[in-house]
Amino acid sequence: MRDSRPHSIENLFEVTDAKGMLQSIQQRAIALNKLNRAVQGILPAQMHPWCRVANFRQGILVLETANASWMMRLRYEQSSLLSALRAQILPSLTAIDITINPSLAAKGQESVQKSGGRPEAEENSPGRQLSEQSAEILRSVASRGSEKLKKTIERLASLAGESTSSTSRNK
After folding, report:
1. pTM of whole model > 0.85?
2. Cross-referenced InterPro entries, in alphabetical order (predicted)?
3. Judgement on whether residues 75 and 100 belong to the same structural domain of the protein
4. In the chain, how long is the greatest CA-to-CA distance?
5. Please, which residues have CB within 8 angstroms of residue 127's CB and are 6 or more apart in sequence?
């Protein structure tokens, strides 16, 4: 069990067993950073902003990913990643554990925007638009609904012909 009592900050700087606590933390961070670079070198380039090394403990590499879809993609790469890491730098690696960290999604989106790239889904699909025909169908459905539902559906139908990128939720 860990000692959860408060300690003096001086304990961080004390040199015990030729290593201070801060030095051991720094060495661990450097090792995890090196491991993260190795993992990024093995993974496909489009996965780089969405995956990172979180920890390595007891022979298990813990990877974080942005969401469930990237987690599935990473699971497809898991066996090749495991064998490559064993061959290159971690012969003691026994398994890879993948967890979801939603905060990684925001960081990944920022790095994609900074690099000037756009996510694949945005590149391949044009802006969505509601056709006039669909709007008429929605209006006929609205006429049979409750008053609250009718207003909502009519507001949706009024967006016919507009791109989703230019719509406003305040209408």
Report:
1. no
2. DciA-like
3. yes
4. 80
5. 163, 164, 165
